[in-house]
Amino acid sequence: MDQNKLQIGIIGTGAIGGFYGAMLAQGGNDVHFLLRSEYDAVVEKGITINSLVNEQLHLHPVQAYKDAADMPPCDWLFIGAKSTAGNLGDIITRAGKPDAKVVLLQNGLSNEDQLRPFLPDTMHLIGGLCYVCLFREGPGLVKHQANGMVDLGYHSGPATTAEAQQALLKEGAELLASGKIPTRLLPGVDEARWQKLVWNAPFNGISVVLNSGTQALLKDPASNKLIKEMMEEVISTARAKGVSMPDGLADKLLMGTGAMPDYQPSMYHDWLHKRPMELDSLYGELLRQGREAGCSLPKIEAMLDQLTFIQNRYLSNQ
């Protein structure tokens, strides 16, 4: 693969899109960034990644666009926009080539299933699960605290054989490797999305309700207990759906989080800046699938009720 001939689009240049897009651009790739509110700031000052584990990365000038129709037709599209974004299918269709590879970098369940009907049949849809600690410090400014690995799993599209799907995933892994982004290739995306939700469901919501980062939440016995109970609800539901879950997963995730720098998840920053939170993709879909499987998730349901109340109050005042 000649990466220099590929055109790469970043749809949603916030923390995730800014970080991975800048890393790919630093690796010599032709990267094009779609922005909305931060367009002027990024055109003027570029994108800066302040990392605790890598050297500072400053990308300037940036190939930035306000409208997907102005972008060159891209071979690969990395979707950093959150699940709350509207018209995503239309934006992707305008920004990508007819056979584009679309990597969905979102949290939650069933994201690919919900996006697929809005994409042309000729486009490849790939699930991308990011294991990274970062947040947006300001327009074009991203603070990277730890990690960065991306899991890739083929979801749907014209690659109908396992061999063709793995070949595309390997192409994606090579592309990410050019930006020094480690990857793992998966046989699918559903199991990985469930496993990631075991961490995301408790930590995202509790960080908002208790206004705390990961270290404080782990240190206090009450919040630590609640986190583990919510993790076990997700694990039990996944197993009821026939999804394989490793033994001891909750304890492993808690131990790994304790070794990370203190971190406020993405939902915390959405709440802090009074943006819509990803309530449906992290909680609503989980509860729907739990009901279908005959599972009770009282802690998850209570968390969604609290977050909905909080979000309704601040959105109603805007």
From TrEMBL:
Pathway(s) served: Cofactor biosynthesis; (R)-pantothenate biosynthesis; (R)-pantoate from 3-methyl-2-oxobutanoate: step 2/2
Signal sequence, start to end: none
InterPro entries, per database record: 6-PGluconate_DH-like_C_sf, 6PGD_dom2, ApbA, KPA_reductase, KPR-Related, KPR_N, NAD(P)-bd_dom_sf
Residue ranges occupied by any Ketopantoate reductase N-terminal domain in the UniProt entry: 8-156
GO CC annotation terms, alphabetical: cytoplasm
Xref: Pfam families: ApbA (PF02558), ApbA_C (PF08546)
GO biological process: pantothenate biosynthetic process
Broad EC category: oxidoreductase
A GO MF term: 2-dehydropantoate 2-reductase activity
Keywords noted in UniProt: NADP, Oxidoreductase, Pantothenate biosynthesis
Known catalytic reactions: (R)-pantoate + NADP(+) = 2-dehydropantoate + NADPH + H(+)
Enzyme Commission number: 1.1.1.169
Domain Ketopantoate reductase C-terminal: 190-310
Family: Belongs to the ketopantoate reductase family.
Its job: Catalyzes the NADPH-dependent reduction of ketopantoate into pantoic acid.
Name of protein: 2-dehydropantoate 2-reductase
